[in-house]
Write a structure and sequence with these properties.
The chain has about 290 residues and is an alpha/beta fold. Helix content is about 30%, strand content about 20%. The radius of gyration is 19 Å and the shape is globular.
């Protein structure tokens, strides 16, 4: 495993560039899973290689439900990423998380519908564990980076992934609170699942833009207010990323997530579907190279 950090940053609403990136160039990456949201901005910040992907594309052109999360994760893996830090705008389902608050996510509830959520299929069956869906090392470093950037982060929230693109009804918002969710967004799933299948440690830093619709005494979610808050959040996110890159140790120690597929694949080698295996050359290529040694 690489002892050098190559961080994939997936920029959410309000974060479309990284100002501190050195030697920056946009790279078009072809994926067998289709078209990624955009080209990947490659460069370096200090000792850290960075690969930045605007989740909705430059200019915010891609609907949440139309995101090709498989192509996005595959493309980041192909550019050498060792880890992924996702930045996401979210609504708040908790009084403790007002607009402007940054919080690291440690759990997910997937309430999306019909999105491709796995790289695997008949002919190459694998089941990765998702009990702890994020990388605690990355999450901790992300939270510390917010603090160093001048924010007041909260550590640990449950993210409810909804389909969208419409916002929640008041009844839905209240139900999600009863489920134990703290924030709500449209993009965290299946992104986190696919990162795990690709053996990429993943953390999600959520930026609260609004109260969701559960507060009866207030108006429902309004896009104009969200955009104004996104702009403020985006500035803090850029400062946070600079602190995050600077905080990474010179040497990247191995993570258990780097080899999660070792105990996940069930299909017998002589039953592997060759067409599917060829599409998994980046996601699971480590396994095939070991088998040929």
């Amino acid at each position: 495993m690489s002892e050098e950090w190559t961080i994939g940053v997936i920029g959410g609403s309000g974060l479309y560039e990284i100002d501190a990136l050195e030697e920056a160039q946009w790279l078009s990456v072809q994926s067998p899973w289709g078209e990624p949201s955009d080209e990947i901005l490659c460069g370096r910040v200090g000792h850290v290689k960075v690969r930045f992907l605007p989740r909705h594309g430059r200019g915010h052109t891609v609907l949440p439900g139309r995101l090709n999360a498989r192509a996005n994760i595959d493309a980041l893996k192909r550019t050498g990423c060792t880890d992924i830090l996702a930045i996401s705008a979210v609504g708040s389902l908790s009084e403790d998380l007002p607009p402007g608050q940054f919080v690291t996510v440690d759990q997910f509830i997937d309430n999306t519908k019909g999105r491709p959520s796995t790289f695997f299929d008949n002919g190459f069956v694998a089941h990765v564990g998702m009990g702890d869906p994020v990388c605690p090392r990355l999450s901790s470093l992300a939270g510390q980076a917010v603090q160093k950037a001048g924010g007041d982060p909260m550590q640990g929230a449950t993210y409810l992934a909804m389909e969208g693109p419409q916002f929640s009804t008041r009844a839905e918002s209240k139900m999600y609170r009863q489920w134990g969710a703290h924030v709500i967004g449209m993009t965290g799933m299946p992104e986190a699942k696919l990162a795990r299948e690709a053996e990429l440690p993943y953390a999600l830093l959520a930026m609260v833009t609004d109260w969701d619709s559960w507060r009866d005494a207030e108006a429902a979610v309004d896009v104009s207010e969200i955009i104004a808050q996104m702009q403020a959040n985006g500035e803090m996110a850029r400062k946070t990323l600079e602190q995050f890159f600077a905080s990474l140790p010179a040497k990247r120690e191995a993570s258990p997530i780097d080899t999660v597929l070792d105990d996940a694949v069930i299909t017998a080698p002589d039953k592997h579907d060759k067409t599917l295996v060829s599409k998994l050359d980046a996601v699971a290529g480590r396994l095939f190279s070991q088998a040929s040694d």
